[in-house]
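Q: Could you fold this chain for me?
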Amino acid sequence: MKKFLTYLIFSFLIISINTSSFAYVISKHYWGKGPLKLSQNTANVLEYYFSAGKMGKYAKEQKEYWTPFFFVIAPNGRGSEYYANPHGQSADINPHYIGQAKIRCKKKSGQECFVFANGYKIVWQNGINKKRRLTKKEIKAGKTLQILQELGFYDGGTTQTKKIEKKKTEKKKEPKKKMNEDIVNKLKELNELYKSGALTKEEFEKAKKKLLN
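A: Sure. Below is the predicted structure, expressed as structure tokens.
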């Protein structure tokens, strides 16, 4: 009986170890690849994620220890979601959680999202990164953003800022362009009315002057 109980305990320990060792393994199917530039906000959230909420802009005192499990990002570098396990390695993750994180991320960004980090390992393949794993020592020393820059994922938010500024400029130009088009169309209408005899020369000049002013 003792031998049987010993066997059961030993088997349970083996299963627990295996579950723990595979807790961070996420299929390559979910990994992101291609060019990626993180927005400043997303980079700050990543620092929060890697440090278990203790480092960076969003750092705060944590009531309990938790382990980063995975971080998903949209290719535009803005939308993101992450999953952290408050029980450390004692609980396994399920693809179900990844699916839900991807759905929430897509709602934010409007793009299909993919895994950027699996635990402490950055798995997104951009041609520079070779599955770089961040150490706790690096994270504690505040080197997360520096490492993201070295891997070509972050430029201090410069790229994203320029994109936003460009969009704002384009929006400002659109109303002016539309206004110019309206004036041209109205001038054409006035000219046609003048040629048809519906307007006298005096009326035409007066209407044209009012329109241009």
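A (continued): The chain is about 50% helix and 10% strand.
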